[in-house]
Amino acid sequence: MLGYYLSNNLGSLFYLLAIGIMIWSIVVRARLSRLVSKYSDVPVASGKDANTCVKEMLQANEVYGVTITMVPGELSDHFDPKTQQIGLSETTYQKHSVTAVAVAAHECGHACQAASGMLLYKIRHAVAPVANLTSRVSVWIAVIGVFVMYFARTYEMSDVGYWISTFGIVLYSIVFLFYLVTLPLERDASRRGLKAMKELGWVSDDQLREAKKVLWAAGDTYAVALASSALTLLRLLFMRGRRRR
Predict the structure, then answer these.
(1) Which residue, among 185, 84, 196, has the nearest Cα to 128 in the 3D structure?
(2) What is the mean pLDDT of residues 39-43?
(3) Residue 6: C-alpha distances to residues 68, 149, 224 (Å)
(4) Phi, psi of 82, rounded to the nearest 5 degrees
(5) How are strands ordered across the β-sheet holding 67-71?
(6) Residue 6's domain spans which residues?
(7) Half-sphere exposure of 151 toward its Cβ, with a 13 Å CA cutoff?
(8) CA–CA distance from 130 to each of 124, 133, 156 (Å)?
(9) pTM of the model
(10) How many angstroms separate the CA atoms of 161 and 172, rounded?
(11) Quick one: how far is CA 233 from the chain centroid?
C-alpha cells in the first residue's frame, strides 16, 4: 500500500516538475529575446565592431589560425573546432552593438577553451556527436523496454524488457552528460568574453553589466536543458523500477 502511494505521488511530482521546467523555459527564452533586442540598438562605447573585437581577443589570448565567417540566421553564432572558424550570424557580423560584441566575445571564448586544451571542452567535443544520435532513439528504446516488461507473460520476457530499458537509459545518460558539461562550459565562455570586453576597453562599465545580462540569459537556456534532461533520466529510471517490482 505504501509503495503504491509513493509510486503515484512520485508520478504526480514528475508531471509538476515538467510543467515547472516548461514555464521556466518560456520565461528564460522571453527574457533572452527581450535583452537581445534591447541591446542590439546600443552601440558599444569603443565603436568597434564584433569582428574587430574577436580578432583582438584572439590576439590577446595568443590563439592563432582561427578565422571569422558570416553564417545565416539570428543567434546562430558558433565556434567550429574542426574548421577553426567562428561563425557570426547576420545580426552579429560586423555589428557594433552591445549584443553583437557580447555574443562574438562569447564564441571567441569557446575558441580560447579549445586552444587551451580545456578538459571539459574536449569531453563535450567527444560526446556531442554521440549525444546527437542517442537523443533521437534512447527514450524510445527505454519506453519499449518498459512496455515489454508490462506486457510480459513470463519472467524471462520481463527480464528482456528490463535490459532493453536499461540500454535505453544508458544511451540517454550520454545526453545528460552532454548537458552536464555544456552548462559550465557556456558560463566559462561568457566569463572569458566579459573579461576581454572589460580589459580591452570595448565597453563602458554600464555596457559591461548589460552584456552580462545578455550572456547569462543565453546561458540560462542550457540550465533549462540540463534540468529537463535530468528529469527525463529520473523519469525513465522510475518507470523501469516500477515495472521491475
Answers:
(1) 185
(2) 95
(3) 55, 20, 27
(4) -70, -45
(5) 67-71, 85-89, 78-80
(6) 2-244
(7) 5
(8) 10, 5, 31
(9) 0.88
(10) 17
(11) 16
Each residue of 203-218: pLDDT tens digit?
Answer: 999 999 999 999 999 9
Position 156 scores a pLDDT of 67
Question: CB of 202 within 8 A of CB of 97?
Answer: no
* 110: exposed, middle or buried (Cβ count in 10 Å: 0-12, 13-18, 19+): buried
Classify residue 239 by its DSSP letter.
H
End-to-end CA distance of the chain: 13
For residues 48 and 28, give the distance between their C-alpha atoms in angstroms, rounded to a whole number. Answer: 29
Which DSSP state fits 74?
A: S
Cβ 189 vs Cβ 183: under 8 Å: no
What grid cell was written down for 81? 573546432
For helices 119-151 and 205-244, what crossing angle results, to 10°?
Answer: 30
C-alpha cell at 12: 504526480
Q: Quick one: cell of 55? A: 580578432
Which phi and psi (to 5°) does residue 88 adopt?
Answer: -105, 135
Q: How far is CA 178 from the centre of its chain?
A: 8
Q: If DSSP codes are grouped into helix, strand and coil, which group holds residue 85?
A: strand
Q: Give the total number of structural domains in the chain.
A: 1
Closest to 165 (Cα-Cα) out of 92, 242, 107 = 242
What are φ and ψ of residue 80, in 5° steps?
-105, 105
Chain centroid to CA 163: 30
Chain centroid to CA 144? 28
Amino acid code (one letter) for 45 = A
The angle, 0 to 180 degrees and rounded to 10, between the axes of the packed helices 119-151 and 98-115 is 90
pLDDT in tens, 99-139: 999 999 999 999 999 999 999 999 999 999 999 999 989 99
Whole-angstrom Cα distance, residue 221 to residue 29? Answer: 7
